[in-house]
Amino acid sequence: MQTTARGMLLAAACATLAAFCSPTSADDASVAAGSWGGDHLLLDVTSLGATAEFDCAHGTVDAPLTLDSSGRFDLPGTFTREQPGPTRQDESMPTLPARYRGVFKNPTLTLTVVLTDSQDTVGAFTVQHGAEPRLTKCK
């Protein structure tokens, strides 16, 4: 019986040590997949990145939303403005390179979109997982 208790203690010690030596850390955390909604933004997150639907624009985040140890990310993507009214088949708005900078503080994600070429800030948006977006499409 003493051997069994020692074996169980050794197994528990090994499991504890393995947990502390695991390659998973805060740096491996990521934004939860699914829909994130808030004022003027719907963000659909997947394991590969995200799509963003704004009031009068749409965009993509072209990398997984992996958080650093401070709960932040800064990722490349695209941003395409939309215009009000009907769009002709031969008409399209340019897709611009953008940076999506986010900060996750449970339960909210604050996202800032900056156009790469001009460094213009499109806006800052606060969303929550599973919340309904409040969009006013310009079309």
SSE topology:
Blueprint lengths: L1 H19 L13 E5 L2 E5 L4 E5 L2 E5 L10 E10 L13 E11 L2 E8 L5 E9 L10
Antiparallel strand pairs: 1-2, 1-8, 2-3, 3-4, 4-5, 5-6, 6-7, 7-8
Briefly say what this structure is:
This protein is mostly beta strands.
Helix percent band: 10-25%
Provide the succession of SSEs.
Answer: HEEEEEEEE
The total strand number stands at 8
User: What gap, in angstroms, lies between the N and C termini?
Assistant: 75 Å
Walk across the major sheet and give the strand order. 1-2-3-4-5-6-7-8
The mean pLDDT is: 84
Instruction: Extract low-pLDDT stretches.
Output: 7-27
Give the CA-based shape: globular
Integer tally of domains: 1
Radius of gyration: 21 Å
- The count of helical stretches stands at 1
The structural class is mainly beta
| Beta-strand fraction estimate | 35-45%
Characterize the largest beta sheet: strand count, sense, and whether it forms a barrel.
8 strands, antiparallel, barrel
Please give a structural write-up.
The protein is mainly beta and 139 residues long. It has one domain (30-129). It has one helix and eight strands, in the order αββββββββ. The protein has one helix spanning 2-20; strands at residues 34-38, 41-45, 50-54, 57-61, 72-81, 95-105, 108-115, 121-129. The chain has an eight-stranded antiparallel barrel. A hairpin with a 5-residue loop joins strand 7 and strand 8 (121-129). The longest helix has 19 residues, at 2-20. It is globular and about 45 Å long. The model is unreliable at 7-27 (pLDDT under 50).
